[in-house]
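Re: the request from the purification team.
They wanted to know what the chain is likely to look like in 3D before they choose a buffer screen. I agreed to run a prediction and write the result into the notebook, where they can find it.
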Amino acid sequence: MAEKDKPRRRFRVNLTDDLTHKLLGTVKFTRWTLFLSALSAVVVILASAWCIFAYTPARNLIPGYPNSETRHLALRNAMLADSLKSAMFRWQLYSENLRKVLSGESPATADSLLSQVNPDSLSAAKIQYLRGRDSLLRAKVSEAEKAAASTPQTDVIDKTGFFQPVSGVITEPFDMATHPYILITCAPDSQIAAIAEGTVVQCGRLDDGGFFCTIQHGGSLLSTMHGPGRLLTQTGARVSSGSPVAVTAEAPGQHAAMITFAIWKNEEAKDPQAYIIF
């Protein structure tokens, strides 16, 4: 009972003038108020430091934190690694076909290359995804061909003067076997232009959030692009050579935009670099 009735100990800090001994201020506290005050001060300091380093350029002062140059080099190394992986895959296909030819077997055709993929290089889910995207693109091109069949147009595939769709760097060149398109890395908010005069036969939003646009240029020639962040045209619109049709968007986690660009002739993919100067 004596322990319960014992008053709680309190402490006092007095601030006095050393010369006049005048009392300037007094702070009273207990052990619990001192502990809670210290804990609150530590939490406020840590929260303030986190906000400063999370939302201001001061985070670049953290040792090992990637700056813009480091992120650019990481993106470039990732692209080089992907290109090296594609090159190794092509050499594997080449050596396998060479072995089959030397042993008297029939080499693999372009349409059956996906079935020859090494499981270590591409997963079954990715192979199925690529097959689905290829079938979707072929269906879209086939529909565009049928829509333009009733309109007499001139064939321009053998003529020069194609307009560069966007100013950038080709980070993944055309490969008929693995990817019948080119991958262009460019600055965000760059305008994407039509390579020649034609009609927009199909455009819209993709499942991954980006957009696509397919343009009929004449005869059986089409150009298609995937990945723009915003469209500047609509289905059925007439476009002239060099007129903007879309705008690129910054890729998630990167400081660059990426689009895929392809040219199709008679339902067969063509190398865009053979007709356009990039």
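For the purification team: DSSP finds four helices and 13 strands in the chain.
Please add any questions underneath this entry.
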